[in-house]
Amino acid sequence: MSKKEDFIQHIMEGYSSKGESLILGGAILDGEALADAFVKIPLKTLNRHGLIAGATGTGKTKTIQVLSEQLSSFGIPVLMMDIKGDFSGVAKEGEEKSFITERHAKINIPYSIASFPVELMTLSEQSGVRLRATISEFGPVLFSRILDLNDTQAGVVAVIFKYCDDAKIPLLDIKDIKKVINYITEEGKDEITENYGKISTSTTGTILRKIIELEQQGADLFFGEMSFEIDDLMRFDENGKGYINILRLTDIQDKPKLFSTFMLSLLAEIYQQMPEKGDADQPELVIFIDEAHLIFKEASKALLEQIETIVKLIRSKGIGIYFITQNPMDIPSGVLAQLGLKIQHALRAFTANDRQAIKQTADNYPTTIYYKTDEVLTSLGIGEAFVTALNEKGIPTPLVATMMRAPMSRMDVLTESEIQEINLKSKLVKKYSELIDRESAYEMLNKKIAAEVEQDNKAEEQRQVEKEEAKPSEITGAVTKSVIKVLTSATFIRGAFGILNKLFRK
């Protein structure tokens, strides 16, 4: 058996599947694309998470597009966190071009054009479905980790949440949490000390500064009502295709804390609400996180631990998470170890550090006799990638250089008019467009403070009235004393003169 025949058999055995599978493309050996040597990913293992990596311009976005299209076709909804803003074309049909037809002929995969159901979402003031969450939904532990608080400061946050629960004060947005902090530091200091213990003003000051830092990154737009309902990510169109939900994040690239805050809250909410699925035939939802290094770049140790924990646990709920970044080393090792599917596009070696990083990257993949992994990593063309996944038994598949199939949808962004067209037809845009600002901690504590001030003013007025009423009696008493004194003196004088008169008469 020749090397080529042996390789094809090796690939077909390694990527065989009894159930439904995504077809990523065809295998490449010695620079040649092989027909019918398909690289397939079982739907059953897509909740085992994944990594899509590679240098700029190597085809990562098109790979995500291909994955999203096939997931949607199988009735699996997708959430794509689109940092660069170059993914929206999936809503429109593509265009068949000669280079695409030639590529598909090489790997013997038919090509057709198609469009897919899309919802455009936003965390900011961009047009689209507005995503929000309340402070209360975060809870004290997650909120403290997002702010990177120490144990003492986290304890104070726990007291704040407990006080609001006990007093039935809703904690919804940024102005609510800031108001509570000011209240427990000033007007309500005695009440808090009596019921929950003494709180240092320096501690509350530090917490407040960190909240303001988060607010400056746009958290005031994210925190509030109405809260986004997770079920609205799990929608299908009239043809049974899963919706591809595109979260447009182009205007928060310089706000990594807001990005990580949203991502962590979303994953926590999904984990809490979704039922256990066990070994299902396909995932309930697949999440793609573009430019994933933004999450991990400034994350604290506590936040990284929280992300790692959720990534480990959420797959049992039927959720697959896929991180997209330039270099696999951008992903913490604890998270990287949880990723079953790895699609590695080309890396570039411009410096000694680059070459060292490529060697480290090659060591993360299964060993193979068919490729010199570190050398091939630098020579892969656009739209080519190393692939390894998990088969239906959870065993890593062989590492294979793959010519990726082309997207069926448009490989370009939507125009502004096309974006508006999608938003005008969206039921979710209408549902979440209204900003609700019901009475919560900010308003309730302001009323409480105003009532206490009014009560104090009334008490002061009463004291003044009583003081004024007391003045006449004091004057009368003083006059009476004076009269008595005068009368007493007069009596004495009269008595003295009477005695003298008697003596002179004698």
Shape annotation: elongated
Query: Main β-sheet: number of strands, strand sense, barrel status?
Result: 12 strands, mixed
Mean pLDDT: 87
Runs in which pLDDT lies below 50 for 5 or more consecutive residues are: 490-494
Strands in their spatial order, largest beta sheet: 2-1-12-11-10-3-9-8-4-7-5-6
Structural class: alpha/beta
Q: Write the H/E string, N to C.
A: HEEEHEHEEHHHHHEHEHHEHEHHEEHHH
Question: Over the alpha carbons, how many angstroms does the gyration radius reach?
Answer: 36 Å
Terminal Cα separation, in Å?
Answer: 169 Å
Oligomer: single chain
Q: What's the helix and strand layout?
A:
Blueprint: H1 3-14, E1 21-29, E2 32-42, E3 50-53, H2 60-73, E4 78-82, H3 98-107, E5 118-122, E6 129-130, H4 135-147, H5 151-166, H6 174-185, H7 189-196, H8 201-222, E7 244-248, H9 256-273, E8 285-289, H10 293-297, H11 301-314, E9 319-325, H12 333-336, E10 341-344, H13 352-363, H14 373-377, E11 384-388, E12 400-404, H15 416-425, H16 427-432, H17 441-505
Parallel strand pairs: 3-9, 3-10, 4-7, 4-8, 5-6, 5-7, 8-9
Antiparallel strand pairs: 1-2, 1-12, 10-11, 11-12
